[in-house]
Amino acid sequence: KNSNYKIECFISFLSAGSSDVFRVVGGSVQLEIKGSVSEFDDFTWIFSGTVNVLKYSKRYKDVTHSPDYEHRVEFNEETCSLILKNLQKTDSGLYKIEVSNALQTTTLYTYILSVLDPVEPPVLNVYSSTDPCNSTLTCRGHDLSITSTCYKETCEEKEVTSPGGVALFLSVRDSVIICNYSNPASWKQDKITFTHLCPDTGTHTLTHTHTHTCTHTVIASMLICSSFYWRHKASLEVLCIFFSCLEIKPLKDIQL
């Protein structure tokens, strides 16, 4: 009979829900029960299989804390969720909620908590070459490093990872270079905005110069035509020649 009870408990543990949770040192985490708790009378949050973080009796509305967690836990009597505060690396491990009533004792849910140091800010540098259109980027985060090249605002995006879910990623978004360093619990970025482009010697400069040249030619032609007009008022034909040069038709009723 005792062996059957152990088997039932083991099967219940395997069928219980489970989640991996990552938090930073000094942060907090909320451990919730997934599902209904109305049919149970007693609740115990257990750490590492042996440490009773908190016990709650629904019948007597009694909450008992472990001395090690006295000032670091909050308990919701309606949902039976647990909040752990001021997390330390020693809080990493397996947490489970064990519930019971007159008929059974079972594990409803388990959490595997990992408490990690926050990542350090990464360092992003841009190095220009003799060619102003080409540049080199370096993105560094602790023991990870990325080197990439850019032509104008087009850069090669790269990512490197290390065991434990630590990642370094270099990307460009909307003219902003982003160096992102992260672990499963935190991330930090360093950014640089493009402040200049390659010198533009293309159509804009040429078009601008060409426009000024055309404008100067028209003004000079108008001055010549005006001068010629006042010297030769009687010669409408000659004046028309100058107007046709400017592709402007004289008025039919012009009076000379």
Provide a descriptive summary of the structure in words.
This protein has 256 residues and is α+β, with helices and mostly antiparallel strands. The chain folds into three domains: 2-116, Immunoglobulins (Immunoglobulin-like), CATH 2.60.40.10; 123-193, no CATH class; 222-256, no CATH class. It has three helices and 17 strands. A six-stranded mixed beta sheet has the order 1-9-8-3-4-5, covered by helices on one side. A four-stranded antiparallel beta sheet has the order 10-11-12-13, with no helix packed on it. The longest helix is centred in the C-terminal third of the chain and has 29 residues, at 203-231. Mean pLDDT is 77; it is low at 1-15, 201-226 and 232-256.
CATH superfamily descriptor of the largest domain: Immunoglobulins
Query: Number of folding domains?
Result: 3
Q: Pairing-aware structural class of the strands and helices? A: alpha+beta
**Main sheet: strands, sense, barrel:** 6 strands, mixed
| Tally of individual helices | 3
- Order of strands across the main sheet: 1-9-8-3-4-5
